[in-house]
Amino acid sequence: MSASTADIAQHEPFSRRTLFWGIFASLLAAAGFFLLSTYAPDFRQPSVGGATPLSKSGIGYAGLAEWLKLTGEAPDMARSDSDLETEMLLVVTISPDSDPDALANIIKLRKGMDTLFVLPKWATLPLFQHEGWEMKIERLPAVVVNDWLGRIAKAKLGGGDITVKQIDVSGQTVNVPDQLQWVADEHPLIAAGNGKAVLTEVEDERFYILTDPDLINNAALKDPDKAAAALKLIEFLQSEEGPVMFDLTLHGFGRKYDLAKLLVEPPFLALTLTILAAAALAFLHGLGRFGPPRADQRAIAFGKRALVDTTAMLLRRAGRLEELGDRYGALARVRAGALLGAPHGLQGEALDRWLDSRDKDEPGGFTTRLQAADAAKTLTQMHEAAEKLHDWTARRLGERR
Predict the structure, then answer these.
(1) What is the phi/psi pair of residue 201, to 5°?
(2) Could you tell me the keywords of this UniProt record (predicted)?
(3) Is the pTM above the cut of 0.85?
(4) Pairwise CA distance, residues 77 & 118, whole Å
């Protein structure tokens, strides 16, 4: 190490290795922040009320999701269309303010797959002093519930009082909920009397409709019998053992796509990785230098060749190339006369005739070539005509020698 290099190294506060790892850690942290900020909204659990699987209010279903987790496998949450196409029992909890288009999309994607639709029942208002809590106001009008029910099956809620006090849910006897909702069905899966179904199956589909949510919602699970019945109900509807999935798309908690997600998900992930790899290679290439730096060259170089090139460029940009043929012919005539010793003062056609007389093999050869140069309009024609004039002059000079 030379003395100057050693002096520079002594004055550097950090080594190159430390700088490299510092830059690498910064880039890694920036990439992690970008990914986390991109996907954070998808996995953030909002604290909301309503009849959703995330709600801890009385009409919510967070208790059922936790109950399934404690007694078996944790349930999944469907946030996208690809999640909805998964082969597992999907529990769709409907609230009065759900998205009808989202429900239609669920019905379309779940054709031939086990799906439990839970109808709404109560009209509520949020308790502002307790985030996520709901205050029950009254039962929803039948026309509102029937609107949602009609989107799934050709059925309507039944009217009249229920005479039974208890119902059987897959072998578990539970008390009948207050103001029980039911539909008419000759072959109910869960009955509240003759022809009165609380759980019914849609014809020619593996869709099930639970008419009364008070059998599985948070308010119901405070009753041990209903908590046990909720598990048996889920087991009864499952085709095979495994986790259950709750739908979130109906409540607006689905996965939203934006430009950042397009950059880090297929099919554009390959393009993003390619750009990053190219940037890394460019950075590594910039760390080293091959040879001394190149000096900046003049915009207009010195010398005759540079003058000719510059003049040609200006003529090309000015669009005057078509006018050069006759001018070049005139210069070639004067040059040929001077080289071959033409009489002084001879010009124009007289000079052409004198030059033609020098050619014994091809009388009029110079004039023919000169006319071709005058008629040239393109670069190719001018180049060919100039070559012929130059060759004619060089041949005549060779004959003189």
Answers:
(1) -110, 135
(2) Membrane, Transmembrane, Transmembrane helix
(3) no
(4) 16
Question: Cα 86 from chain centroid?
Answer: 23
Which amino acid, 149?
Answer: L
Cross-strand pairs, 122: 139
Question: Partners of 173 in the beta sheet?
Answer: 168
State the amino acid at position 206 in one-letter form. Answer: R
Instruction: Provide the CA 258 distance to its chain's centre, in angstroms.
Output: 7
| Statement: residue 78 has pLDDT above 80 | yes
Question: Would you say 109 and 135 are in contact if contact means Cβ atoms under 8 Å apart?
Answer: no
One-letter amino acid for residue 179 of the chain: Q
Among the residue ranges 16-20, 58-62, 147-151, 337-341, the one predicted with the least confidence is: 16-20
**Tokens 């119901």 appear where?**
220
For residues 83 and 245, the answer to whether their CB atoms sit within 8 Å is yes
φ/ψ of residue 27, rounded to 5: -65, -40
The beta-carbon contacts of 131-135 under 8 Å, at least 24 apart in sequence, are: 131/47, 132/47, 132/48, 132/49, 132/55, 132/56, 132/57, 133/49, 133/56, 133/57, 134/49, 134/50, 134/55, 134/57, 134/58, 134/59, 134/60
Give exposure, 146-182, as e/b (b: 16+ Cβ within 10 Å).
Answer: bebbeebbebebbeeebeeeebebbebebebbeebbb
Tokens of 223: 């009753």
In angstroms, the CA 177 to CA 197 distance is 14
Consecutive H or E run containing 201: strand 196-201
Q: Let me know how long the chain is.
A: 401
What's the rounded Cα separation, in Å, for the pair 111 and 202? 12
CA distance 140 to 337: 113
